[in-house]
């Protein structure tokens, strides 16, 4: 295999890995639990701070926690990939900023106490071991969340969103999952209502 062949192989692998990283974040934000499950190989382990265990346990933990998360956005950046010599494994680091609006009455330790939703930010890195398997391709074999900082902000300064605008949804009714393609302004307006 030439150096150019290896570089192309690595570029394709990096693209496949990045697609998994983004699918995970989108899955959490849209509560698409099966999509999250597809990011992990069978037998994978996730160490997510308050949760350590397999992917099915992670999803159960996320489902329970996200019952009280009103909005969720994960921003992923600075993805770096280092391959093993045989290109079967990759160590992947990605920076993640999580921004969530959380109902504190849920008892969520991140939300604190009170009767109004709070805005939480968590800056972390995903340090993942990916494996390329014949069945499933590149998926997470192990994930470790490495935490940099967390903060909680009251929502007194938040501005209400105009109800005529397209609202974000945390499930399959979100515009993301709507039919393709809206082709004109009238189609866009009807798709978002």
Structure write-up:
- It is built from 4 helices and 6 strands.
- With 193 residues, the chain is α+β, with helices and mostly antiparallel strands.
- It has a 6-stranded mixed beta sheet.
Helices and strands in order:
Blueprint: H1 3-29, H2 33-37, E1 40-47, E2 52-54, H3 55-66, E3 69-83, E4 89-102, E5 118-133, E6 137-154, H4 185-191
Number of H- or I-type helical stretches: 4
| Residue share in helix | 25-40%
Anisotropy-based shape: globular
Give the rounded overall mean pLDDT.
Answer: 91
Order of helices and strands: HHEEHEEEEH
Distance between the termini: 53 Å
Rg from alpha-carbon coordinates: 19 Å
- Helix and strand content put the structural class at alpha+beta
**Spatial strand order of the main sheet:** 2-1-6-5-4-3
Outline of the structure:
With 193 residues, the chain is of the alpha+beta class. Helix content is 26%, strand content 38%. A hairpin with a 3-residue loop joins strand 5 (118-133) and strand 6.
Question: Features of this protein?
Answer:
193 residues; alpha+beta; 6-stranded mixed beta sheet; 4 helices; 26% helix
């Amino acid at each position: 295999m030439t150096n150019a062949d290896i570089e192309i192989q690595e570029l394709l692998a990096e693209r496949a890995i990045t697609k998994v990283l983004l699918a995970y974040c989108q899955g959490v934000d849209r509560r698409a639990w099966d999509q999250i499950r597809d990011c992990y190989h069978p037998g994978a382990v996730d160490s997510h701070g308050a949760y350590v265990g397999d992917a099915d346990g992670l999803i159960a933990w996320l489902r329970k926690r996200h019952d009280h998360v009103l909005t969720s956005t994960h921003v992923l950046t600075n993805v770096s990939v280092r391959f093993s010599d045989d290109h079967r494994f990759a160590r992947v680091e990605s920076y993640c900023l999580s921004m969530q609006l959380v109902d504190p009455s849920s008892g969520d330790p991140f939300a604190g106490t009170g009767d109004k939703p709070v805005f939480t930010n968590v800056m972390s890195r995903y340090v993942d071991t990916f494996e390329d398997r014949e069945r499933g391709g590149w998926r997470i074999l192990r994930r470790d969340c490495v935490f940099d900082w967390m903060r909680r902000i009251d929502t007194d300064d938040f501005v209400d969103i105009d109800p005529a605008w397209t609202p974000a949804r945390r499930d399959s009714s979100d515009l993301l999952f709507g039919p393709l393609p809206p082709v004109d302004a009238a189609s866009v307006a009807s798709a978002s209502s």
